[in-house]
Amino acid sequence: MKKIAVILSGSGVFDGAEIHEAVLSLLAIEQEGASWHCFAPNMDQHHVINHLTGEEMAETRNVLIEAARIARGQIDDLAMLDPSQYDALLLPGGFGAAKNLSDFAFKGSECSIHPEVKRVCQQFAEEEKPAGYLCIAPAMIPLIYGPGAKGTIGTDPDTSKAFNQMGGEHIKCPVDDFVLDQKRRLLTTPAYMLAGSVSEAAEGINKLVRELVKIA
Predict the structure, then answer these.
(1) Neighbour tally for 53: CB within 10 Å
(2) Fewer CB in a 10 Å sphere around the end CB: N or C, the chain?
(3) What is the pTM of this model?
(4) pLDDT 10s digits, 121-131
(5) What's the rounded Cα separation, in Å, for the pair 197 and 203?
(6) What is the band of 55 on the pLDDT scale with cuts at 50, 70, 90?
(7) In whole angstroms, what is the distance from residue 157 CA to residue 15 CA?
(8) Confidence grade of residue 29 (pLDDT, cut at 50, 70, 90)
(9) Which ranges of the chain would DSSP assign to H, the alpha helix?
């Protein structure tokens, strides 16, 4: 059975992992006959957002502890992730990818990636193992794979411009499809960068996961 490592960035679209994308990904992995295990960095979130009002809350939450809600406790500190033990990597989106795993939400093309996240993702790349990035998570790709890496965040002009400024090659993609950088074994899909419903997000995610498991 192929094993997929999944990196989460908290719990909740505005300050962590996009929950629908995460659950759809885990379901799709199982439906393709593979297994998953979740990881997250053991760190404080950039901030905490009230998902009812959209306002920032005066409290602190831990990315790993929050992500454990989605994984039902089946999760480990990202520092424990050994890429040699897994066949592929998957990163759901949500603002946590751009606020906790990286600071893309604040610095755009001048962003950096959390050191542990960068280490793990680059090791998967160096070992030529396939990786899938959903929604806004592909914004990190140019800093992981280097110049010329292909990916999509959908059609948003500002984000795609930043992707290109960082050295990547952005490709417009509809919500129900994915982009494959064959040379790098790298897959991306817009998910909630374009999706207006759970079922729309599922179309592209299911196709991406199917290909990810196939080439793993």
Answers:
(1) 8
(2) N
(3) 0.97
(4) 999 999 999 99
(5) 10
(6) very high
(7) 22
(8) very high
(9) 19-31, 63-71, 96-99, 104-107, 115-126, 141-145, 157-165, 198-215
| Distance in angstroms (rounded) separating the CA atoms of residues 159 and 208 | 21
CA angle 178/117/3 to nearest 5° reads: 60
Chain centre distance of CA 86: 16
Per-residue pLDDT reduced to its tens digit, 59-117: 999 999 999 999 999 999 999 999 999 999 999 999 999 999 999 999 999 999 999 99
Kindly give the residue spans of alpha helices, DSSP state H, lying in 72-114. Answer: 96-99, 104-107
Rounded Cα–Cα distance for residues 48 and 174 (Å): 31
Work out the average pLDDT over 171-200.
97
Instruction: Give residue 60's Cα distance to chain centre.
Output: 22
List all residues 6 or more positions away from 155 whose beta carbon is below 8 Å from its beta carbon. 172, 173, 190, 193, 194
**Which backbone phi and psi does 125 adopt, to 5 degrees?**
-65, -45
> What SS3 state is found at 72?
coil
| Integer Cα distance of 9 and 19 in angstroms | 10
Active site residue 121: no
Percent above pLDDT 90 for the chain:
100
Residue 198 burial (CB count, 10 A): 12
Q: Look at strands 56-57 and 75-77 and give their pairing.
A: unpaired
Q: Tell me which residue of 146, 195, 200, 208 sits closest to 13, measured CA to CA.
A: 195
